[in-house]
């Protein structure tokens, strides 16, 4: 092999190494971003579950108040 061919091969190998290094850095960034998004998604799921529980409690409270009002109105009807 001539020196010129070796230099061309070396340049191509160096370009491939550089490309691989850039892709590895990109993969690491994407892994970090994925981890961050996974954490955020978990926090959002927890928040949603808490809101669903609050909503269910408020619905139960609302139903209880409606029942109490109906009971009181029924008692008032019997008084008259």
Q: Helix and strand string, N-terminal first?
A: H
Structural class estimated from helices and strands: mainly alpha
Approximate shape: rod-shaped
| Mean pLDDT score | 95
The number of helical elements comes to: 1
* Sheet having the most strands: none
Task: Enumerate the spans where pLDDT stays under 50 for 5 or more consecutive residues.
Answer: none
Q: State the end-to-end CA separation.
A: 114 Å
Helix content, binned percent: over 70%
In terms of DSSP E residues, the strand content is under 5%
Radius of gyration: 34 Å
* Strand element count: 0
Q: How would you characterize the overall build of this protein?
A:
With 80 residues, this protein is mostly helical. 96% of the residues lie in helices and 0% in strands. It has one helix and no strands. The chain has one helix spanning 3-79. 0% of the residues are buried.
